[in-house]
Specification:
about 450 residues; Helicase, Ruva Protein, domain 3; Rossmann fold; 3 domains; 16 strands; elongated; alpha/beta; five-stranded parallel beta sheet
C-alpha cells in the first residue's frame, strides 16, 4: 500500500474496535470507529472513507442492512465483513451484496492487515485505470523542453528551483508555447513525480458539467449520472492537478475552487461526504489575468493563491534562435514515429521556418514538420515540402520577411475557406487543418474571423 488510508470500523464490541484500530494504525492508516450501524452510516454521510470494516452481527441495524445502504450510497465502496458466525451462506450473501471480502472471528492482526492492504491496492489500481483511460484520450504535445535562448534558459532555471517544492505555479503564455510541457516538467522534478499528473482543460469543459469533472458526482445526482464518478481532484490525490487555461472558468467555479484550495477537501456533486485531498496545483493561462482582475471576471484572492511563482513563456517569434533546434527535434521525433529516414532540413527551408511568425507557436511548428516528414519525397526537406495548411511556402524562402507576411494573409484565407467547407463546424475544420480546436480558436481571434 502506497499511502495512508482512512478506515472506518463498525462493530458493537469495544475490544474488536480497539484491536482493529491498533492493528491498522501500525501501517500509518487513520482509523475511526462506530459502535453501531446507525452511527457508522451517519459518519459515512459526512466523510469519505477508503475502506469500511463491518461486523455482521449487531443489535441496532444488522451488518447486511448496513452493507446494503453503504453500497446504495456508493457502489464503489470497499467493505470487508467480519463476523463470529462464519458460515458459507453468510459469506456468499455478503459477497452478493457487494462486500470485497469476508473474514471470520477470531483473526490475527497480521491476517487483518493483509486483507486490508489487498483491498486498498485494488482501490488504488481502479483509480489508476480511470486516470490511464483519461490520459490515453489526451494529447501531450512534445516531450522535452527544447531551447537555448536566454528566455528559455530562464524558464528552465525556474522549473528546477520551483519543482522540488509544493509551491503553486501560474504559467502564462500564448496558445502553443508549451505550458503543459512546463507543468509536466515541474511535476517530474517534484517529490510527487510517482503520483498522478492530471490535466484539466478549462477551455473545453461545459460549464454545467465542470463541478462534476472536478469534484466527481454520486449516482443519481442529476440526469445522466448513472454511476458514481471520481473527479479530477480524487484522481490527482497525492500528485499534481494542472488547470490549463484557468482564465476561462466562471466566477462561480472560481469561488468553489478557492474554497477547495483553502480547505483541502471536496464534496462530490449530489453527495454529502467530505473527501480530503492532497494535490499540488499548477495553472496556466493564455489570457492577461491582470486585465481580467480589472474587469472583475477573475477573483483577486484566487489569482494571488495561484500565482505564488509566475512563469512566463515567450512566443516562438521572440525566440527565433530556438526554431532550428525545435525543427530538428521534431524531425527526429516524426522520422521515428512515421518510419521515415529524412536526413535534414535544407538551408532554404530552415530560412523559411525561421522567418515565419508562427502564430500557433511551437505546436504549429510541430504540425508543420510532421506534415513535411509525411509529404517529403526525398531525404531532405525542401521549401516545397513545407505546407502551412495547404500553402506551399517556397516563395517565403525567396522573398525575405515580406513573403512570410504574405503567408499569414493566405493562411487566413485558407482558414476561412475551410470553415465554409464544413459549414462553420470548428472541430471538423481544425481536424482538416491539422491543428487542435484551441489553436484554431486562437487563430480566429488573431485574424478577426467571426
Amino acid at each position: 500500500m502506497s499511502k495512508q488510508a482512512n478506515i472506518l470500523v463498525i462493530d458493537d464490541e469495544e475490544t474488536m474496535r480497539d484491536s482493529c484500530r491498533q492493528a491498522l494504525s501500525r501501517d500509518g492508516n487513520r482509523v475511526e470507529v462506530a459502535d453501531d450501524g446507525s452511527k457508522g452510516l451517519a459518519m459515512l454521510e459526512k466523510k469519505s472513507f477508503d475502506l469500511v470494516i463491518l461486523d455482521l452481527k449487531m443489535p441496532d441495524l444488522s451488518g447486511m442492512e448496513v452493507l446494503k445502504r453503504i453500497k446504495e450510497g456508493d457502489p464503489d465502496a470497499l467493505v470487508i465483513v467480519i463476523t463470529g458466525y462464519a458460515t458459507v451462506e453468510s459469506a456468499v450473501e455478503a459477497m452478493k451484496r457487494g462486500a470485497y471480502d469476508f473474514i471470520p472471528k477470531p483473526f490475527t492482526p497480521e491476517s487483518l492487515r493483509v486483507i486490508v492492504n489487498r483491498a486498498l491496492e485494488k482501490r488504488e489500481l481502479a483509480l489508476e485505470n480511470v486516470l490511464l483511460r483519461a490520459e490515453l484520450k489526451a494529447s501531450f504535445g512534445y516531450e522535452v523542453i527544447v531551447g537555448q535562448s536566454k528566455s528559455m534558459k530562464k524558464v528552465e532555471d525556474l522549473v528546477q528551483k520551483v519543482g522540488p517544492t509544493d509551491t503553486t505555479v501560474l504559467i502564462s503564455g500564448e496558445s502553443g508555447t508549451g505550458k503543459e510541457l512546463v507543468a509536466r516538467a515541474i511535476h517530474r522534478s517534484s517529490s510527487r513525480k510517482d503520483k498522478p499528473f492530471v490535466p484539466v482543460d478549462c477551455g473545453s469543459l461545459v460549464e454545467n458539467l465542470f463541478e462534476s469533472e472536478l469534484f466527481g458526482h454520486v449516482k443519481g445526482s442529476f440526469t445522466g449520472a448513472t454511476a458514481t464518478k471520481y473527479g479530477r481532484f480524487e484522481l490527482a490525490n497525492g500528485g499534481t492537478l494542472f488547470f490549463d487555461e484557468i482564465g476561462n472558468i466562471s466566477i462561480n467555479i472560481q469561488a468553489k475552487l478557492l474554497r477547495v484550495l483553502q480547505e483541502k477537501e471536496i464534496t462530490r456533486v449530489g453527495g454529502s461526504q467530505v473527501i480530503k485531498v492532497d494535490v499540488r496545483i499548477v495553472a496556466a493561462t493564455n489570457k492577461n489575468l491582470h486585465e481580467a482582475l480589472k474587469a472583475g471576471t477573475f477573483r483577486e484572492d484566487l489569482f494571488y493563491r495561484l500565482s505564488v511563482v509566475p512563469i512566463t513563456l515567450p512566443p516562438l517569434r521572440q525566440r527565433r534562435d530556438d526554431i532550428s533546434l525545435l525543427a530538428n527535434h521534431f524531425l527526429r521525433k516524426y522520422n521515428k514515429k512515421r518510419g521515415k529516414s529524412i536526413r535534414a532540413i535544407s538551408a532554404q527551408a530552415m530560412q523559411a521556418l525561421v522567418k515565419y511568425d508562427w502564430p500557433g507557436n511551437v505546436r504549429e511548428l510541430e504540425n508543420a514538420i510532421e506534415r513535411a516528414v509525411v509529404l517529403a519525397e526525398n531525404d531532405v526537406i525542401k521549401p516545397s515540402d513545407l505546407l502551412y495548411y495547404g500553402l506551399n511556402v517556397e516563395t517565403a524562402a525567396k522573398s525575405d520577411v515580406s513573403g512570410a507576411q504574405r503567408l499569414i494573409n493566405v493562411e487566413r484565407e485558407h482558414i476561412v475557406k475551410t470553415l465554409k467547407m464544413f459549414n462553420g463546424h470548428k472541430g471538423r475544420a481544425a481536424e482538416s487543418l491539422g491543428i487542435d480546436r484551441k489553436t484554431l480558436r486562437s487563430k480566429l481571434k488573431i485574424y478577426g474571423i467571426e
